[in-house]
Amino acid sequence: MHYERFLNYLTHERRFSKHTAVAYTLELERFKSFLEEEQTMLDQVDYRVLRFYISGHKESGKASTSVNRTISVLKSFFKYLLREGIVTQNPATALKSLRTPKKLPVTVEKDKLVALLDQETSQTQTFADRRDLLVMELLFGTGIRLSELIAIDDEDIDGYGRQIRILGKRNKERLVPIHDLLYDQIISYQVEKKSVFLQNMSTHLIVTNKGKPAYASMIYQIVKKYLTLVTSQSKRSPHVLRHSFATSLLDNGADLNAIKEILGHAGLVATQVYTHNSAERLKSIYKQAHPKA
User: Fold this and answer.
1) Taking the CB of the first residue and of the last residue of the chain, which one, N or C, has fewer CB atoms within 10 A?
2) Could you give the CA distance from residue 173 to residue 26 in angstroms, rounded to a whole number?
3) 3 labelled catalytic
4) Which residue range forms the structural domain that includes residue 60?
5) Is 212 within a domain?
Protein backbone atom coordinates (compact mmCIF):
# COMPACT_ATOMS: atom_id res chain seq x y z
CA MET A 1 0.00 0.00 0.00
CA HIS A 2 2.71 2.48 1.02
CA TYR A 3 4.80 1.54 -1.99
CA GLU A 4 1.97 2.26 -4.43
CA ARG A 5 1.17 5.59 -2.76
CA PHE A 6 4.81 6.62 -3.00
CA LEU A 7 4.96 5.76 -6.71
CA ASN A 8 1.75 7.70 -7.34
CA TYR A 9 3.30 10.64 -5.50
CA LEU A 10 6.36 10.50 -7.78
CA THR A 11 4.27 10.32 -10.92
CA HIS A 12 1.57 12.87 -10.17
CA GLU A 13 3.13 15.32 -7.72
CA ARG A 14 6.83 15.11 -8.50
CA ARG A 15 6.05 14.47 -12.19
CA PHE A 16 8.79 11.92 -12.67
CA SER A 17 9.13 10.50 -16.19
CA LYS A 18 7.80 7.03 -17.00
CA HIS A 19 11.36 5.76 -17.32
CA THR A 20 12.28 7.00 -13.83
CA ALA A 21 9.04 5.68 -12.35
CA VAL A 22 9.75 2.22 -13.77
CA ALA A 23 13.27 2.28 -12.30
CA TYR A 24 11.90 3.25 -8.87
CA THR A 25 9.24 0.53 -9.10
CA LEU A 26 11.82 -2.18 -9.76
CA GLU A 27 14.04 -0.96 -6.92
CA LEU A 28 11.14 -0.90 -4.45
CA GLU A 29 9.91 -4.33 -5.51
CA ARG A 30 13.35 -5.77 -4.72
CA PHE A 31 13.40 -4.00 -1.37
CA LYS A 32 9.88 -5.19 -0.55
CA SER A 33 10.87 -8.80 -1.32
CA PHE A 34 13.93 -8.42 0.91
CA LEU A 35 11.84 -7.22 3.86
CA GLU A 36 9.38 -10.07 3.37
CA GLU A 37 12.23 -12.61 3.44
CA GLU A 38 13.62 -10.97 6.57
CA GLN A 39 10.11 -10.76 8.07
CA THR A 40 10.65 -7.08 8.78
CA MET A 41 7.96 -4.38 8.68
CA LEU A 42 8.63 -0.91 7.28
CA ASP A 43 8.42 0.74 10.68
CA GLN A 44 11.01 -1.76 11.99
CA VAL A 45 13.65 -0.87 9.40
CA ASP A 46 16.70 0.83 10.87
CA TYR A 47 20.15 1.71 9.57
CA ARG A 48 21.51 -1.79 10.25
CA VAL A 49 18.79 -3.37 8.11
CA LEU A 50 19.49 -1.00 5.25
CA ARG A 51 23.25 -1.48 5.55
CA PHE A 52 22.75 -5.25 5.36
CA TYR A 53 20.55 -4.81 2.29
CA ILE A 54 23.10 -2.55 0.53
CA SER A 55 25.96 -4.91 1.47
CA GLY A 56 24.12 -7.67 -0.37
CA HIS A 57 24.11 -5.52 -3.49
CA LYS A 58 27.86 -4.93 -3.22
CA GLU A 59 28.66 -8.59 -2.62
CA SER A 60 26.60 -9.63 -5.64
CA GLY A 61 28.96 -7.61 -7.81
CA LYS A 62 26.64 -4.74 -8.70
CA ALA A 63 28.31 -1.64 -10.09
CA SER A 64 28.75 1.37 -7.83
CA THR A 65 26.34 3.38 -9.97
CA SER A 66 23.67 0.71 -9.53
CA VAL A 67 24.20 0.61 -5.75
CA ASN A 68 24.03 4.40 -5.60
CA ARG A 69 20.73 4.36 -7.47
CA THR A 70 19.36 1.94 -4.87
CA ILE A 71 20.53 4.23 -2.06
CA SER A 72 18.93 7.25 -3.75
CA VAL A 73 15.59 5.44 -4.09
CA LEU A 74 15.64 4.34 -0.44
CA LYS A 75 16.41 7.87 0.74
CA SER A 76 13.49 9.27 -1.27
CA PHE A 77 11.16 6.50 -0.12
CA PHE A 78 11.88 6.86 3.59
CA LYS A 79 11.78 10.64 3.37
CA TYR A 80 8.25 10.27 1.99
CA LEU A 81 7.30 7.76 4.71
CA LEU A 82 8.56 10.13 7.38
CA ARG A 83 6.58 13.01 5.91
CA GLU A 84 3.43 10.89 5.86
CA GLY A 85 3.95 9.79 9.48
CA ILE A 86 4.35 6.13 8.54
CA VAL A 87 7.78 5.95 10.21
CA THR A 88 9.17 8.06 13.03
CA GLN A 89 12.70 8.41 11.66
CA ASN A 90 14.52 8.15 8.35
CA PRO A 91 17.07 5.31 8.61
CA ALA A 92 18.33 5.99 5.08
CA THR A 93 19.79 9.39 6.03
CA ALA A 94 23.03 7.78 7.21
CA LEU A 95 23.54 5.83 3.97
CA LYS A 96 26.48 7.14 1.99
CA SER A 97 26.87 6.82 -1.75
CA LEU A 98 29.84 4.92 -3.13
CA ARG A 99 32.60 6.69 -5.01
CA THR A 100 32.33 6.23 -8.73
CA PRO A 101 34.92 7.04 -11.39
CA LYS A 102 33.99 10.10 -13.42
CA LYS A 103 33.23 9.24 -17.00
CA LEU A 104 33.50 11.84 -19.71
CA PRO A 105 30.51 12.08 -22.07
CA VAL A 106 30.95 10.04 -25.24
CA THR A 107 30.88 12.26 -28.33
CA VAL A 108 31.44 12.12 -32.07
CA GLU A 109 33.61 14.73 -33.79
CA LYS A 110 31.43 17.55 -35.07
CA ASP A 111 33.23 17.67 -38.44
CA LYS A 112 32.43 14.02 -39.06
CA LEU A 113 28.78 14.54 -38.14
CA VAL A 114 28.41 17.63 -40.29
CA ALA A 115 30.02 15.88 -43.28
CA LEU A 116 27.78 12.83 -42.80
CA LEU A 117 24.57 14.85 -42.58
CA ASP A 118 25.50 17.00 -45.57
CA GLN A 119 26.22 13.88 -47.62
CA GLU A 120 22.98 12.18 -46.60
CA THR A 121 20.98 15.30 -47.42
CA SER A 122 21.93 14.96 -51.08
CA GLN A 123 21.04 11.25 -51.12
CA THR A 124 17.64 11.14 -49.40
CA GLN A 125 14.87 9.78 -51.62
CA THR A 126 12.05 8.15 -49.66
CA PHE A 127 9.95 9.56 -46.84
CA ALA A 128 11.70 7.21 -44.41
CA ASP A 129 15.09 8.54 -45.56
CA ARG A 130 14.01 12.15 -44.96
CA ARG A 131 12.51 11.32 -41.59
CA ASP A 132 15.65 9.48 -40.45
CA LEU A 133 17.84 12.37 -41.53
CA LEU A 134 15.57 14.83 -39.72
CA VAL A 135 15.87 12.74 -36.54
CA MET A 136 19.65 13.07 -36.74
CA GLU A 137 19.51 16.78 -37.56
CA LEU A 138 17.16 17.47 -34.64
CA LEU A 139 19.21 15.53 -32.11
CA PHE A 140 22.53 17.03 -33.19
CA GLY A 141 21.05 20.45 -33.99
CA THR A 142 19.22 21.00 -30.70
CA GLY A 143 20.70 18.63 -28.11
CA ILE A 144 17.26 17.43 -27.04
CA ARG A 145 16.72 14.11 -25.27
CA LEU A 146 15.22 11.05 -26.93
CA SER A 147 12.00 11.34 -24.91
CA GLU A 148 11.73 15.02 -25.83
CA LEU A 149 12.15 14.28 -29.54
CA ILE A 150 9.37 11.68 -29.50
CA ALA A 151 7.03 14.10 -27.70
CA ILE A 152 7.34 16.95 -30.24
CA ASP A 153 4.06 17.82 -31.98
CA ASP A 154 3.76 19.65 -35.28
CA GLU A 155 2.34 22.67 -33.47
CA ASP A 156 5.44 22.89 -31.26
CA ILE A 157 7.43 24.25 -34.20
CA ASP A 158 7.60 28.05 -34.05
CA GLY A 159 8.61 29.29 -37.48
CA TYR A 160 8.47 32.98 -36.61
CA GLY A 161 10.79 32.60 -33.64
CA ARG A 162 12.81 29.77 -35.20
CA GLN A 163 12.45 27.64 -32.11
CA ILE A 164 10.81 24.46 -30.83
CA ARG A 165 8.74 24.14 -27.67
CA ILE A 166 10.18 21.20 -25.76
CA LEU A 167 8.49 19.37 -22.88
CA GLY A 168 11.39 18.26 -20.69
CA LYS A 169 11.79 16.33 -17.47
CA ARG A 170 8.98 16.72 -14.96
CA ASN A 171 6.88 18.46 -17.63
CA LYS A 172 9.08 21.56 -17.62
CA GLU A 173 8.77 23.50 -20.86
CA ARG A 174 11.61 25.32 -22.60
CA LEU A 175 12.19 26.91 -25.99
CA VAL A 176 15.10 25.56 -28.02
CA PRO A 177 16.41 27.59 -30.97
CA ILE A 178 16.86 26.04 -34.42
CA HIS A 179 18.84 27.30 -37.40
CA ASP A 180 17.22 28.21 -40.71
CA LEU A 181 18.33 25.10 -42.58
CA LEU A 182 16.86 22.83 -39.91
CA TYR A 183 13.60 24.78 -39.95
CA ASP A 184 13.39 24.38 -43.74
CA GLN A 185 13.98 20.64 -43.36
CA ILE A 186 11.19 20.40 -40.80
CA ILE A 187 8.70 22.24 -43.02
CA SER A 188 9.59 20.14 -46.07
CA TYR A 189 9.22 16.97 -44.02
CA GLN A 190 5.86 18.08 -42.60
CA VAL A 191 4.50 18.76 -46.08
CA GLU A 192 5.55 15.32 -47.27
CA LYS A 193 4.23 13.64 -44.13
CA LYS A 194 0.84 15.22 -44.69
CA SER A 195 0.71 14.04 -48.31
CA VAL A 196 1.85 10.51 -47.47
CA PHE A 197 -0.39 10.00 -44.42
CA LEU A 198 -3.37 12.14 -45.33
CA GLN A 199 -5.82 9.51 -44.02
CA ASN A 200 -3.69 8.57 -41.02
CA MET A 201 -2.29 11.89 -39.85
CA SER A 202 -0.58 12.00 -36.47
CA THR A 203 0.06 15.27 -34.66
CA HIS A 204 3.48 13.96 -33.63
CA LEU A 205 6.32 15.37 -35.67
CA ILE A 206 8.29 12.13 -35.99
CA VAL A 207 6.24 9.12 -37.12
CA THR A 208 6.76 5.53 -38.21
CA ASN A 209 6.48 4.28 -41.78
CA LYS A 210 2.77 3.75 -41.07
CA GLY A 211 2.19 7.25 -39.74
CA LYS A 212 2.07 6.28 -36.07
CA PRO A 213 4.01 8.15 -33.34
CA ALA A 214 7.69 7.20 -33.19
CA TYR A 215 8.98 5.09 -30.30
CA ALA A 216 12.30 4.84 -28.47
CA SER A 217 13.77 1.69 -30.07
CA MET A 218 13.01 3.07 -33.52
CA ILE A 219 15.02 6.24 -32.79
CA TYR A 220 17.87 4.15 -31.38
CA GLN A 221 18.00 2.12 -34.60
CA ILE A 222 18.08 5.26 -36.75
CA VAL A 223 20.90 6.84 -34.73
CA LYS A 224 22.94 3.64 -34.64
CA LYS A 225 22.59 3.24 -38.41
CA TYR A 226 24.02 6.69 -39.03
CA LEU A 227 26.71 6.74 -36.35
CA THR A 228 28.04 3.38 -37.55
CA LEU A 229 29.11 5.23 -40.71
CA VAL A 230 31.41 7.64 -38.83
CA THR A 231 32.56 5.93 -35.64
CA SER A 232 33.58 2.50 -34.38
CA GLN A 233 32.90 3.30 -30.71
CA SER A 234 30.50 0.95 -28.97
CA LYS A 235 28.17 3.66 -27.70
CA ARG A 236 26.06 4.97 -30.57
CA SER A 237 22.91 6.26 -28.91
CA PRO A 238 20.77 9.42 -29.18
CA HIS A 239 22.49 10.74 -26.05
CA VAL A 240 25.83 10.68 -27.87
CA LEU A 241 24.39 13.33 -30.20
CA ARG A 242 23.23 15.38 -27.21
CA HIS A 243 26.76 15.23 -25.79
CA SER A 244 28.24 16.08 -29.20
CA PHE A 245 25.92 19.08 -29.52
CA ALA A 246 26.86 20.47 -26.10
CA THR A 247 30.59 19.91 -26.62
CA SER A 248 30.46 21.60 -30.03
CA LEU A 249 28.77 24.68 -28.57
CA LEU A 250 31.33 24.88 -25.77
CA ASP A 251 34.25 24.45 -28.18
CA ASN A 252 32.91 27.33 -30.25
CA GLY A 253 32.75 29.69 -27.27
CA ALA A 254 29.13 29.37 -26.13
CA ASP A 255 28.38 30.49 -22.57
CA LEU A 256 27.98 27.59 -20.14
CA ASN A 257 24.76 29.02 -18.69
CA ALA A 258 23.27 29.33 -22.17
CA ILE A 259 24.12 25.68 -22.89
CA LYS A 260 22.51 24.74 -19.57
CA GLU A 261 19.25 26.44 -20.57
CA ILE A 262 19.20 24.88 -24.03
CA LEU A 263 19.82 21.39 -22.64
CA GLY A 264 17.22 21.84 -19.91
CA HIS A 265 19.57 21.00 -17.05
CA ALA A 266 18.24 21.81 -13.59
CA GLY A 267 21.66 22.94 -12.36
CA LEU A 268 25.00 24.01 -13.77
CA VAL A 269 26.86 20.98 -12.38
CA ALA A 270 25.38 18.68 -15.02
CA THR A 271 26.52 21.04 -17.78
CA GLN A 272 30.03 21.53 -16.42
CA VAL A 273 30.97 17.97 -17.33
CA TYR A 274 31.37 19.15 -20.93
CA THR A 275 34.19 21.47 -19.91
CA HIS A 276 36.24 18.37 -19.11
CA ASN A 277 35.61 17.06 -22.63
CA SER A 278 36.89 20.32 -24.11
CA ALA A 279 39.92 20.31 -21.83
CA GLU A 280 40.83 16.77 -22.85
CA ARG A 281 40.44 17.67 -26.53
CA LEU A 282 42.78 20.65 -26.11
CA LYS A 283 45.36 18.45 -24.37
CA SER A 284 45.19 15.99 -27.24
CA ILE A 285 45.65 18.76 -29.82
CA TYR A 286 48.56 20.18 -27.83
CA LYS A 287 50.33 16.82 -27.66
CA GLN A 288 49.93 16.30 -31.39
CA ALA A 289 50.87 19.81 -32.46
CA HIS A 290 53.59 21.01 -30.10
CA PRO A 291 57.14 20.02 -31.18
CA LYS A 292 58.24 19.21 -27.63
CA ALA A 293 55.02 17.58 -26.41
Assistant:
1) N
2) 28
3) no
4) 2-94
5) yes
